Amino acid sequence: MIKQIQKTVSFLKERNFEAPEIGIILGTGLGQLTEHLSVEEEISYNHIPNFPTATVEFHKGKLLYGELEGKKVVVMQGRFHLYEGYDLRDVTYPVRVMGMLGIKKLLVSNAAGAINLEFKKGDLMLIEDHINLQGGSPLGFHGVEQFGERFVDMSEPYDLEMRTKLLEIAAANGIQLNQGVYASVFGPQLETKAEYRMLKIIGADAVGMSTVPEVIVANQLKIPVVAVSVLTDECDPDNLAPIDVSEIIAVAGKAEPKMITIFKALIKAL
Q: In which domain, by residue range, is 74 found?
């Protein structure tokens, strides 16, 4: 796997992906941040050696390199999920690539459903902790110790310094930034009423199908990471309406400018 990553990294460096300071993963319906990026290089995933290919129609599947708020950044416009048929090593492969490219911080976004009914669709939630319900670990393979410790400490998986800064930035900009626990499930089906009740009981404030594997790998690589969920629907088991995926994407797009504001300010401050 290290040889595969080295081949990918060599290819990207030949394409001038040089010394990015910050990695960014953009989630479902959250691609507008790239409009604020001074793009220097742009490559489709299917042109990058050993890279998985995004199969979800609202994930564009491009890796971008450029400058944002005075920092060199590498941006994933579209991510990978277990429900696409990938395994956890595939899903987290880009994080290992960004780590070998030299990123010092990782910013992650996702679209999620609100389990905590005090949160409303269109709100943002800063992830302060997570629950892994994906049925596996991205560290569960032979040779993982070549990348760092096998038994990675997860007592504080989301960087406290960046979380504190994001809260300050949100307050200064009049943006409500909730804090909560994110549960990551396999998908792609949405949850049943009983599953939403279970998630509430075990302490989840939001639920989605991504992020946790990438965060685990970032922690193994000792890359400080922060993550924000855009809450696209309210998961009230007592008043549950059928899900309209196009509405979820629309809500994500409408709420995204708030996420862009706080991410840009955080990048500037780093």
A: 2-269
What are the pLDDT digits (tens) for 161-186? 999 999 999 999 999 999 999 999 99
77 Cβ partners below 8 Å, 6+ apart? 26, 31, 34, 59, 60, 61, 62, 63, 64
d(CA 26, CA 257): 13
Give pLDDT tens digits for 203-260: 999 999 999 999 999 999 999 999 999 999 999 999 998 888 888 888 988 899 999 9
- Distance, in Å, from the CA atom of 231 to the CA atom of 242, rounded to the nearest integer, reads 16
Q: What is the CATH number of the domain that holds 197?
A: 3.40.50.1580
Rounded Cα distance, 35 and 14, in Å: 24
Nearest to 178 by CA among 228, 127, 125: 125
The number of folded domains in the chain is 1
End-to-end CA distance of the chain: 31
